[in-house]
Write a structure and sequence with these properties.
This protein has 467 residues and is an alpha/beta fold. The protein has one domain: Luciferase-like domain (TIM Barrel), CATH 3.20.20. 37% of the residues lie in helices and 13% in strands. It is built from 14 helices and 14 strands. An 8-stranded parallel barrel has the order 1-2-3-4-9-10-11-13, surrounded by 7 helices. The chain has a 3-stranded antiparallel sheet with strand order 8-7-14. A two-stranded antiparallel sheet has the order 5-6. Helix 3 crosses helix 4 and helix 11 packs across helix 12. The two termini are 32 Å apart. Bound molecules: flavin mononucleotide (FMN).
């Protein structure tokens, strides 16, 4: 039988009016408000027409302090994808939700419901909420450490998995004549008792089409990778070079292997923010126009947040930086891997603060480029065939214009190389990402979750029920 050609997985990351921090001011950006469902429906239908795997919405639980010069105030992602599920047919719908400020029973219920509403097309981007300011919105005096956030996330996801598995696929009988709605032994309590959560269960939503949402994660630090290797079906990641993307890719697949997971069952999608033009000059002009519209205070606010509130405003804008100008990433409890990437970038290129802010203005530390469709396609194929990616998190600098250019000009080149689908074949998002169905346990006692790296055992619930 002819081996299946490995194909690219492509997700559209919808963020404001585009990923460049000044996109909201650019003439090619949508005129619509960030609270206008029509804007997101238009993009979702464009992504579906382009046969992308999925679209994705980020979420932060605090308003950044740069509202005067940055487009802020977007819709809550789970609510938004519920609306988009009704007006789309195939596109995957990935929403972000936090494990640091929420309860597993509520979130498991919401995602199971969204999976039913969408016919098995939802994904959950699991975040621990690196933004320190979020704590004050949940009655906390300070942010938990990164390690504490991941430990809570580990248990949170284990409980959610157990709850999604608390209904057998055939539990609902709906036998009107016989008067039996569901078979009692098909729905089981999880009786979970752990350091962070006590959850009796079962869930009060029947098993969803996928069994559970596609689990996505986007932390690249040591703790982040271990968490991803254990739980994630797909991983979003930010790299400023192919070299660091390749190292990350290899390490993550290896760590997943240590949990008994085949490499193809963890899909790695680096971010790519490409300005596309019919010539390279035209493409560069788009980035120059955007950089000219950017206000330095926005970049400084973002940098401050990534480093957990460290203030950089004392540094002269046009003086070459050294790593001593930046906090030690190991001490950063906010976005550690991003801090690591920025410090490595400063060490390698010694930019001025203005140049660093400009390089981050495009896509916050994800790979940014300007070029012709051929140049963009060549780069994508080089990373894909070079062990750096299973696909990409597409981050157009301006929306919808730069996504239209990508769909109309880059995708045909990838299809001509047989590297991207012509038509949708699979029903569910998990299948779309090439993942096997969630194992169906005979009764929701199921196969246990992979053991935790630190050996911590939750009492009965998770160990007996997680799948
Ligand atoms: C593509 C992408 C999307 C992300 N979306 C969110 C988000 O919506 N909300 C959030 O709090 N963090 C988000 N993050 C941040 C990660 O969840 C994580 O906190 C960050 O990468 C730091 O991880 P680390 O602590 O393992 O280094 C995103 C990261 C990436 C790469």
């Amino acid at each position: 039988m002819q081996a299946m050609t490995r194909k690219l997985h492509l997700n559209l990351f919808i963020n404001g009016r585009g990923h460049h921090e000044a996109a909201w001011r650019h003439p090619a950006a949508t005129p619509r408000a960030l609270t206008d469902l029509a804007y997101y429906r238009e993009l979702a239908l464009k992504a579906e027409a382009a046969k992308l795997d999925s679209i994705f919405f980020a979420d932060h639980l605090a308003l950044a302090d740069d509202l005067d010069h940055a487009a802020r105030g977007e819709l809550e992602p789970l609510t938004l994808i519920a609306a988009l599920a009704a007006s789309t047919r195939h596109i995957g719908l990935i929403a972000t939700a936090s494990t640091s400020y929420g309860e597993p029973f509520n979130l498991a219920r919401q995602f199971a419901s969204l999976d039913h509403l969408s016919g098995g097309r939802v994904g959950w981007n699991i975040v621990t909420s690196w933004m320190a300011a979020a704590a004050a919105n949940f009655g906390r005096t300070g942010q938990d450490t990164q390690a504490e956030r991941y430990a809570r996330a580990d248990e949170f996801v284990a409980v959610a998995r157990a709850l999604w598995n608390s209904w057998a696929p055939d539990a609902v009988r709906d036998d009107r004549a016989g008067g039996i709605y569901a078979r009692r032994d098909g729905v089981r309590a999880i009786a979970h008792h752990g350091p962070h959560f006590d959850v009796e269960g079962p869930l009060n939503v029947p098993r969803s089409p996928q069994g559970r949402p596609l689990l996505v994660q986007a932390g690249s630090s040591e703790d982040g990778r271990r968490f991803a290797a254990r739980h994630a079906d797909a991983v979003f990641t930010a790299h400023l070079s192919k070299q660091s993307a390749t190292a990350f890719y290899g390490d993550l697949k290896k760590q997943a292997g240590a949990f008994g997971r085949p490499p193809e069952q963890i899909v790695v999608l680096p971010g790519l923010s490409a300005a596309i033009g019919s010539t390279e000059t035209e493409a560069r002009r788009v980035l120059e126009e955007l950089n000219a519209l950017a206000h330095p205070s926005v970049g400084l606010e973002r940098l401050k947040n990534r480093f957990g509130g460290h203030d950089f405003s004392h540094l002269p804008l046009d003086h070459p930086l050294t790593v001593d100008d930046l906090p030690d990433p190991k001490a950063v409890e906010a976005s550690r891997s991003r801090a690591e990437a920025i410090v490595a970038h400063v060490a390698a290129t010694r930019p001025t603060l203005r140049q660093l802010l400009a390089s981050l203005a495009g896509a916050r530390g994800h790979f940014t480029m300007a070029g012709t469709p051929e140049q963009i396609a060549d780069l994508m194929i080089d990373w894909f065939e070079g062990g750096a990616a299973d696909g990409f998190n597409i981050m157009p600098p301006v929306l919808p214009d730069q996504f239209d250019r990508f769909a109309d000009n880059v995708l045909p080149l990838l299809r001509r190389r047989g590297l991207f689908r012509e038509e949708y074949e699979e029903e569910t998002l998990r299948a779309r990402y090439g993942l096997p169905p969630v194992p169906i346990s005979p009764s929701p006692s199921g196969s246990p979750c992979p053991p935790r790296a630190d050996g911590v055992q939750f009492s009965r619930g998770e160990a007996a029920v997680g799948a």
